[in-house]
Amino acid sequence: MITIINALIPGSEELQQIEITGSEIAAIKPMREGVAKKEKPSIIDVEGDWISLGGIDLQINGCFGLAFPDLTLEDLPRLEKICDFLWTKGVDGFLPTLVTTAVRKFQRSLLVLEEFIAEQKQNNRTTAQVLGVHLEGPFLNYEKRGAHPAEYLLTASLEALEGIITNHESIIKIMTLAPELDVTGQVINYLHSRGIIVSLGHSQATAKEARQAFEKGASMVTHAFNAMPSLHHRQPGLLGEAIVSKNVYCGVIADGHHVAPTMLKILLRACEYERGAFLVSDALAPLGLPDGIYPWDERKIQIEKGTARLASGKLAGTTLPLLTGVENLVKWDICKVESAIALATESPRKAIGLPGLSVGQKANLLRWNWQQELNKLTWQRLDLGWMHTDD
Fold first, then answer.
1. Separation between Cα atoms, residue 140 and residue 120, nearest integer Å
2. Whether 91 contacts 83, CB under 8 Å
3. φ and ψ of 134, to 5 deg
4. Which of 206, 272, 334, 349 has the fewest Cβ atoms within 10 Å of its own Cβ atom?
5. Are both 168 and 240 inside the same structural domain?
6. Tell me, what's the pLDDT at 238?
7. Looking at the 3D structure of the chain, how many domains does it have?
8. Alpha carbons 16 and 215: distance in angstroms, whole number
9. 134 is in an annotated binding site
10. Whether residue 11 sits in one domain with residue 70
11. pLDDT at position 391, please?
12. What is residue 383's predicted lDDT score, i.e. its pLDDT?
């Protein structure tokens, strides 16, 4: 058994000790209860640093030059390398995101990801896990399509939906759509009945239309503020309704370009931080590559300092890893360290129905150090392998 002592964890105000047996968390209890006597090598004193699970990225579009909508079976080894890379970036799990594309490419990518997920479960390697798939499109509002190709946008219907997801429903975790396109509500009802999370985005929806979608089971918003009307004091719109609705989580990009820091602070305060929001990277295929110009479907994107733009200058995404957003929130004094960490590690899990840091979870842990005088937050993975004993 290994015991981590003097740890701060999200959701607790006092120092904790975390007992680990094998590869799982066996107990979490306050330091005031005393530490059982063990041999010195089995104790890790983190001296008041924060401990968390790794990050969960619910919106990531590609990596190492591979866009997930372009997947083929030949890319299975590349997916392994992407998972290993994301693991080194503090990510425990992620949802490969398929942006709007041709139906045949949706189907092909889903087939590849289904096979890869099955292989991961069988191999049980220590790496970032593909937790399912996020479909961002094709039922998006033309006026708020952002960088999504207009020629592949579709009218929301059960027939069109079934043409994309048939035989692959079990791996689809989230689908982003514009609720005003689902006039009958049949698409949202169908997805909700199948356990697929409906996220509202790329939309012109009014507050009433958003409320109706939430009442039907939608429970998420895709990259809040982006590709939707902004907050207005007389027209709260989709985002305003999401903020005041119970059990609705808002995903948000904390790169400083997609949403200004002041608006981030307003949003997170209104959402009560990790209770109603979570961070996403929205990273594109050049994640892990240097700045430059890269192909993106039939177009090209310019990457400069982690920000991706089309030739027109339109914002297309980022190439910054998820945990950079955590560091930014602290650096910009947006929220407390605890909330910043939780926004990438705890709330994304809760948003898709997974448990957070708790007994029984795998001890894939991050150690966070906050240098208060510099207002700088850094992290590292805790390597517990060398300390494990036979007990």
1. 32
2. no
3. -110, 115
4. 272
5. yes
6. 97
7. 2
8. 39
9. no
10. no
11. 45
12. 81
Based on the residue annotation, tell me whether 282 is a catalytic residue of this protein: yes
Which is nearest to 152 in space by CA: 108, 202, 212, 102?
Answer: 102
pLDDT, residue 296, reads 80
Q: Rounded to whole angstroms, how far apart are CA atoms 230 and 270?
A: 14
Distance (Å) of CA 376 to CA 99, 366, 368: 34, 16, 10
Contact 240, 248 (CB under 8 A): no
| Structure confidence at residue 390 (pLDDT) | 44
Q: Name every residue whose Cβ is closer than 8 Å to that of residue 278 and which is 6 or more positions away in sequence.
A: 58, 249, 250, 251, 252, 343, 344, 347, 348, 351
User: Does one domain contain both 125 and 72?
Assistant: yes
Q: CA-CA distance, 390 to 385, in Å (whole number)?
A: 12
* Residue 317 annotated as lining a ligand binding site: yes
* Rounded Cα distance, 327 and 318, in Å: 15
CA distance 225 to 242: 11
- 322 and 346 inside one domain: yes
Looking at the fold, whether 105 and 175 belong to one and the same domain comes out as: yes
| CATH of residue 251 | 3.20.20.140
Q: Tokens 């035989």 appear where? A: 167
Q: Is 246 exposed, middle or buried (0-12, 13-18, 19+ CB in 10 A)?
A: exposed
**Pair of tokens at residue 190:** 């169908």
Q: Does 148 belong to an annotated binding site?
A: no
Q: What is the pLDDT of residue 38?
A: 57
Q: Based on the fold, state whether residues 16 and 155 are members of the same structural domain.
A: no
Determine the structural domain holding residue 368 and report its residue range: 2-52+359-387
pLDDT for res 289: 94
Instruction: State whether 208 and 239 are in the same domain.
Output: yes
Q: What is the pLDDT of residue 35?
A: 74
CATH code at position 35: 2.30.40.10
What single letter denotes the amino acid at residue 29? K
The answer to whether 366 is annotated as binding is no
For residue 36, the model assigns a pLDDT of 66
Determine if residue 315 is labeled as part of a ligand binding site.
yes
Annotate 217-261 with three-state secondary structure.
CCCEECCCCCCCCCCCCCCCHHHHHHHHCCCCEEEEECCCCCCCH
- 223 assigned binding-site residue: yes
Query: What are the residues facing 111 on neighbouring strands?
Result: none
Residues 329 and 374 in one domain: no
pLDDT at position 37, please?
A: 63
Q: What is the β-pairing status of strands 62-63 and 55-60?
A: unpaired
Ranges of the chain whose pLDDT falls below 50? 388-391
